Amino acid sequence: MSNKIIDGKAIAALMKKEIAAQVAAMIDADNEAPHLAAIIVGEDAASQTYVSSKERACHDVGITSTVYRLPENTTEKKLLEMVDFLNNDADIDGFIVQLPLPQHINTNKIIERINPAKDVDGFHPRNIGMMQLGLPTYLPATPFGIVELLHRSKVEVNGKHVVVLGRSNIVGTPVSVLLSRKSEHGNATVTLCHSQSKNLEEITKQADILIAAIGKPEFVKASMLKKGVVVIDVGIHRIADQSKEKGYRLVGDVDFDDVVTTASKITPVPGGVGPMTIVALLHNTLLASKKEIYK
């Protein structure tokens, strides 16, 4: 079964080595190491885990990392002031505002305030627009990670039918754009499904490649797929399981045990898409430090 598994941890480790070599070359040339900052508001457990993983990954490749931890009751005005501060800090090459934000803060207003040249999450409307047009920009981390996973796993995308489950602005919509556009790692025919899609199983059974980003634990079953499909599982959920030491197990949007015999290749959860999201952020930070996209 091991040859079926798309090992995101191994691919991310290889990409981290490539990034570390570039960072080392910058430092050898008497340039500053790239500097990534993160703002995290509140105590969301998944966000805390992600930011800690990002800090470790930065350390692994020689990127400087700074984290600003703000309390849950931080006002929108205060957060906007922090964004302005990082926009104007010449030592910071790129930064992220960790999502989700508390409900009293307007997420779009915060994202739009970030300097597009420092928006290494690739969420600013200007960067989204440049992605849509196929212009050089910072690609959203998870979609970029998915494209790299497919490419480095030697999964042919050109001319294939890709079905994407989920239309979020963070994953589903941008990955559908990246895989459908005329490019080296694109040229797929993409169907984007969502909560209002009719006859879902008829569509998913046509997929050569299925990308599940629907936010429902173990939603995708083998009965929904054709033999030989490539399955990319973006979801991650904690399911109570008293047989586990931590009292829970992690699952994706795909019922892995049910689907694995049907798929020709499949990403596990954890260890599939997740590590690629973090390495994509490192990639974007390196790009930002080179000041080539926004000159």
According to CATH, the homologous superfamily of the largest domain is: NAD(P)-binding Rossmann-like Domain
Mean pLDDT: 95
The coarse silhouette is: globular
Radius of gyration: 19 Å
Could you tell me the number of beta strands? 10
Q: What class would the helix/strand composition place it in?
A: alpha/beta
Distance N to C terminus: 47 Å
| Name of the level-1 CATH class of the largest domain | Alpha Beta
Helix content: 25-40%
SSE series = HEHEHEHHHEHEHEEEEHEH
* Neighbour order of strands in the largest sheet: 5-4-6-7-10
Largest sheet: 5 strands, parallel
Please give the count of helices. Answer: 10
Q: What is the third-level CATH name, the topology of the largest domain?
A: Rossmann fold
What does this protein structure show overall?
Helices cover 38% and strands 16% of the residues. The chain has helices spanning 8-28, 45-61, 76-87, 107-113, 125-132, 141-152, 172-180, 200-204, 256-259, 273-290, and strands at residues 35-41, 64-70, 94-97, 161-165, 189-193, 209-212, 230-233, 237-240, 248-251, 265-266. The protein has a five-stranded parallel sheet with strand order 5-4-6-7-10. Strands 2-1-3 form a three-stranded parallel sheet, with helices on both faces. Helix 2 (45-61) crosses helix 10, helix 6 packs across helix 7 and helix 6 (141-152) packs across helix 10. The longest helix is centred in the first third of the chain and has 21 residues, at 8-28. It starts with 7 loop residues before the first helix and ends in a 5-residue tail after the last helix. The mean pLDDT is 95.
